[in-house]
Write a structure and sequence with these properties.
five-stranded mixed barrel; single chain; alpha+beta; 518 residues; globular
């Protein structure tokens, strides 16, 4: 009983980790909005927990030595974890801040609040000038006003604001955290009822900045803007800005379309893949001068600062939490279980920022990594020996992520791109090399004398690499997508996953028996 509440015991316990049980218990509470279902789940787990505790205590009173040395405490932990997961799910569901504008939407002509992210342009690559460029950002509401301006109301929640042409340069200068007063109107088809996870859309006619962002946010905006200004004149600067900072404002339109049609949109969206590459690069550079522990700590600090610079996208936050927990376990000498770390990251993230649980990047990030952890090994069993190991591992990871995310991708975008399974094997390593070279160019191009020479060489390499990436990705983009009705995708995908797991298990046992016979 000494390790009943031990974190390491929760991470590396026999059978299913209590962290996984807690996450699985929280998921239906978070994503099923029916109050009756949530209440039934909580009552069920509380009943199981209380029954288990009574059964355990009764056993202790009768035969304490036998019970304490049995597996009963493990089952108690599982029940406790399930109940705790349900409670976390309930807390997340309650804390989801539904938009309450204070006044009827159709009467609102002005809003006041704070920018929650960097304004993003959606006019880039289409030939618009700076004066014609429009954008959007999420805003935390604090006040609304009616058409006549005589009535004002306190507001809470968030709104997705679409900014008019010509305002984007000024908004970028002030950046995230600035307080705005905006005149305009909400979209007529928006409704706040039953839309807790959907931000209403406000069409801005004029924008007034009434308060600057905090000093730390202003410093971040200055650094971010300086990097973008340095990259913008380069022919490859748009792609570098997309891969390093997650902004596609200067990315050539045809290249963005090619990435999408090749099933590679996830490469342009900052995610755990980008942080994994950055952390691997840092570990390689810092391990020798700082040692293993020093490189882990320095890498974590750098990644936190990097995410602060580019913005706390849900997929990046998930990766940071997992990296931090994994680093802690390494430093304490505890064995890691990646699925348990994924479950812990899920619970922490929905408690820290409940609204993120309903974002597309959050859902796809967790589903993709979960699919890789569950399905990549079965696929690898089927491919091993038929393909080179590195190629088989890449395809198995892509297949796992593709199968699990297929229903969500089909529902959101209406088309699946199976060619991305192969295209990713080419684009992912090339994107990693491109990120490394462009980051190196940013560091060395301004160094006197030697920086000019190295910067020129890197510039030519990046131009050539971008040309090759564009050419290869455009070839994959020619393959047609797969359009199936959503009910068909939801039926076929689980069947494929079950058949894959069963067949891979049978095939693994068959190979083992055949090898022993041979």
């Amino acid at each position: 009983m000494k390790s009943f509440f031990s974190f390491s015991d929760f991470v590396q316990s026999p059978g299913p980790s209590p962290l996984i049980v807690a996450a699985c218990a929280a998921i239906p509470v978070v994503y099923i909005s029916l109050p009756a279902v949530r209440l039934c789940l909580l009552v069920l787990f509380c009943f199981i927990l209380i029954t288990s505790l009574v059964w355990f205590l009764a056993g202790v009173l009768k035969k304490p030595i036998k019970v304490l040395h049995s597996n009963n405490p493990f089952y108690i932990r599982i029940c406790f974890a399930g109940t705790l997961g349900l409670i976390v799910g309930f807390v997340c569901a309650v804390r989801i801040e539904q938009c309450a504008p204070g006044l009827p939407l159709e009467t609102i002509s002005s809003i006041k609040g704070k920018l929650l992210n960097d304004p993003r342009s959606f006019a880039s690559g289409l030939g618009q000038t700076t004066e014609e460029e429009r954008g959007m950002a999420v805003m935390q509401l604090s006040e609304t006003g009616n058409l006549s301006g005589s009535v004002r109301g306190s507001a809470r929640g968030r709104a997705l604001v679409f900014f008019p042409a010509g305002t984007m340069p000024r908004l970028r200068d002030f950046g995230r955290g600035a307080e705005l007063y905006i005149e305009g109107n909400f979209s007529p088809d928006d409704s706040t009822e039953g839309r807790a996870a959907v931000d209403p859309r406000f069409r801005a006619a004029s924008v007034h900045i009434i308060k600057k962002a905090p000093a730390l946010e202003r410093m971040r905006t200055v650094v971010r803007s300086a990097v973008l200004v340095q990259l913008k004149p380069k022919a490859w600067g748009g792609l570098a800005a997309a891969l390093l900072l997650g902004t596609r404002e200067n990315l050539e339109g045809t290249l963005a379309v090619s990435f999408r049609n090749a099933g590679l949109s996830h490469i342009l969206a900052l995610s755990g893949m980008h942080l994994a590459f950055i952390s691997a690069m840092l570990a390689f550079v810092l391990k020798k001068p700082l040692g293993k522990k020093g490189s882990i700590i320095a890498g974590f600090v750098f990644i936190v600062l990097y995410v602060f610079l580019v913005g706390p996208e849900p997929s990046l936050v998930r990766a940071v939490i997992m990296y931090g927990l994994g680093s802690f376990l390494i430093l304490t000498g505890t064995t890691r279980q990646t699925f348990a770390l994924l479950s812990a990251a899920f619970l922490i993230q929905i408690l820290w920022n409940p609204s993120s649980a309903y974002s597309i990047s959050f859902v796809l990030s967790y589903l993709a990594l979960g699919g890789i952890l569950v399905l990549s090994n079965p696929v690898l069993v089927l491919l091993k020996g038929r393909l080179p190991l590195s190629l088989a591992m890449g395809i198995s990871a892509s297949a796992g992520a593709f199968l699990v995310t297929a229903p969500v991708v089909s529902a959101l975008f209406g088309v699946l791109r199976p060619v991305g399974l192969i295209a990713g094997l080419v684009a992912a390593p090339l994107s990693g090399i491109f990120m490394a070279l462009s980051f190196l160019w940013l560091l060395l191009s301004k160094v006197p004398f030697i920086g000019i020479i190295i910067g020129t060489v890197l510039n030519k390499l990046l131009i050539a690499l971008q040309f090759f990436m564009q050419w290869s990705i455009s070839l994959f983009a020619r393959f047609p997508g797969l359009s199936l009705p959503f009910p068909a995708i939801c039926t076929v995908t689980p069947l494929l996953i079950v058949c894959l797991l069963v067949f891979a298990d049978w095939y693994a046992r068959y190979r083992n028996e055949f090898a022993r016979f041979a």
